[in-house]
Structure formats: C-alpha cells, structure tokens
User: What shape does this take?
Amino acid sequence: MSDSLNAPEAPQPAEHAPGEHIHHAPGVSVRHTRAKGEPRFPDGPRADPAGSHFERRIRSFQPRRSRVTAGQADALQRLWPKWGLDIDGQQVIDLGELFGNGGPVVLEIGFGMGEATAQMAAEDPGVNILAVDVHTPGQGNLLNLADQNGLSNVRVGNGDAIILLREMLAPDSLDGLRVYFPDPWPKKRHHKRRLIQPEFLDLAATRLRPGAIVHCATDWEPYAEQMLEVLDAHPEFENTQADGGFAPRPAHRPLTRFEGQGLDKGHVVNDLLFRRVQHRVPQSEQHRQESPR
Ligand SMILES: C[S@@+](CC[C@H](N)C(=O)[O-])C[C@H]1O[C@@H](n2cnc3c(N)ncnc32)[C@H](O)[C@@H]1O
Assistant: This one.
C-alpha cells in the first residue's frame, strides 16, 4: 500500500468549514466565526447524531472540541455523504448495502486518527471495516486516507459505538470486533467509564456471529488485567490462547498512534483475542432436537 497512510498530511488549500480553526502554516491559525445554529460541516458528520434522548449517563469517551485541518474539513465535506454514517440510533443498518458487497464486517471502536485502520483495510481488502469514533479530525483523516489509497472497504461512523451496537446493528451481523487502546480511565472513580465491562460484552455478544473474534489491545496494564478478567468470566466468549492468557500481537495489527505514545513511556502492550462461542441450544430445545420424531 501507499506510504501516504503513515505520511504526515500534506499542506492543503485554505478551504474550510465555517466555524473552524484552520491551520494554514505551523503556528498560524485563523478563526472563522460560525453563526449560531450553523452546522459545523454542512455535508459532514452531525454534531450530536443520536440526540439527547439517547444520552447515557456514563460515557467511555470525553467529548472534546477539536481543531480540524483544512484537509480534514475538505474530506468531511466531500466524502462524508459517500462513506460516513451518523450514529443516530434511528434504524437498523443493512451492512451488505452499506459496503456494497457481501463481505465480512468487522467493527472497530475508537480508531483515533485512523492510520492503523486504513492500513488494515488496505492489507485485507476482503474484510469490510466499520470504524467508529466521535473524534471529528480523525474522521476527516480516515476519510482522506481511504480516498488517497483507493480503499472501498472502510466506512466511518460518527457517534457512540454503544448506540450503534444497541440500536443499529442486527443480531449476529458482525464478524469481528476491534478495540485498540481504548481510553484507560486510570483514576478509580473513572473506572466505570471503561468500555470493556460485562454489560458491554453482553451487548457485543448479541451482535457478533459465533466464531467472531474480539481483539482488544491496551498499554495500560491494570486495564489489560480487567479485560482478561471480564472476557474470561463471560460465558459467550472463550480465550483463543490455550494458556488462558494474553495473546502474542497478531501480525495484522499495525502499531497505532496511542500505542506508540505508550511505548515511548515504557508501557507494556497486551493483546487479547477471544472468540464468540457457538450459540448454546437451550435445554428445552436440545430435548426437542434429540427426541425421535
Ligand atoms: C485512546 S484513543 C485510541 C485511538 C486509536 N485506537 C489508537 O490506538 O491510536 C480511544 C478512542 O476511542 C474513542 N471512543 C471511546 N469510546 C467510544 C465510544 N463509545 N464510541 C466511539 N468512540 C469511542 C475516543 O474518542 C478515542 O478517539
């Protein structure tokens, strides 16, 4: 694949969406004031796709007002109508229609700036990646990378992955789930914000096909231990590792931006690979199936 996935973004023409801080040159930022009610990107992702009625009390992400470069703004305007998905909780998505092929679909939650996502999509064109984040600059960056590298197997979701899973994905519709370097929420009082919890796994299990792989990675060791504990305890998942521990880093997972930052700080990275078990046949059903007709 092209080196442009990892290359820093080239300087872009000074097109921008209203209301954005646009970087024209290092250290120079121009503010264009947006009128009240004016959308951030008229054809781009919606500011709050699900609306307040879907508001969850505890969220695994911190809403942040982020600067968007001219190149990202251009990609959001140009490519969102084609490859973007607002997570509004309003309809169940037909994934075959979304990707335009019948290929397997893997959900990636929290792609950040999307470099690793684009690399995986390029290296495995037969697998569709539904990549979800709330981070607007990252959405623009991933759209740009997909465009520059001719990737037709990436769609970019904007919003809370919990709403996507709960309201917009059909049972057994996913062939895999990737959660790379989720926010570690290190303070004890914030642990409840961590994504990988028993309730999250209950929901994810219903959307994953039997045999689907859940792949998590983190550089925060206490969170890695928590992931191992809750995945291990969950009846719908089994560890792919015979020794019941962490997995060696699979070759298909590229180094991510947050991983690089963690490694620079001397953190240890752990991967976890769990499989969605076959649906258990309820006892009554088992009896019916075993009885001679
Ligand atoms: C620490 S960053 C890691 C980004 C990337 N995977 C990497 O390794 O560089 C975690 C990302 O997950 C996103 N995130 C957290 N919870 C989310 C949720 N419920 N739905 C969508 N995105 C979420 C955050 O916005 C953030 O961009």
